[in-house]
Amino acid sequence: MVPLIVAGLVGACTKVEPPPQPEPVTPAPVTPIKAEGATQRAIQLYPALAVKDSLFNRTFREVYNQELEARPYTLTAVDWPLNIARRTAGLLGVTPMPEYTPRPTPEVVYVQPPTPRPGTMLDRPVQKEHFRMHGTPEIRPVYTQ
């Protein structure tokens, strides 16, 4: 029985080390995608976004920097410029430009030229020669009793 007690005392005196903790993983930096189509669409809806140092442009950049710090993964969406422009517009109370709908192109209709009218007696070459030589006939009123 003595060996068990000694073994128990030896086990109690041994320092137990905690399991190794994994090193904290730092997330890879998120690079916003270019999203050129969404950027152009945002500029179409909010033209003040394209004016450097305008109120809308400065607010847009502030919202962008906040988003980059707080939730950088949202800047990997295809339409992130449009989303941030809408949030900026909401903050400033700006309404987007109305949709431009081009007028439909008129349909081209080909019209057949008019058919020539049938000729009269005055169009005949012989009749023309007669009137050239003798003059045009006089028109006289006809009286009836």
Mean pLDDT: 80
Low-confidence stretches: none
Query: H/E order of the elements?
Result: HHHHH
The 3D shape can be described as rod-shaped
Q: What amount of the residues lies in strands?
A: under 5%
> What is the CA-CA span between the terminal residues?
170 Å
The major pleated sheet works out as:
none
Treating each run of at least 4 consecutive H or I residues as one helix, how many helices? 5
Strand-pairing-aware structural class:
mainly alpha
- Our Rg estimate from Cα atoms comes to 47 Å
Helix coverage percent:
40-55%
Q: What's the β-strand tally?
A: 0
Molecular structure report:
It is a single chain. Helix 2 packs parallel to helix 4 (80-92) and helix 3 (55-70) packs across helix 4. The protein has a domain at 30-95. It is 42% helix and 0% strand. The chain has helices at 2-13, 36-45, 55-70, 80-92, 125-134. With 145 residues, the protein is mainly α.
What attributes does this structure have?
single chain, about 140 residues, mainly alpha
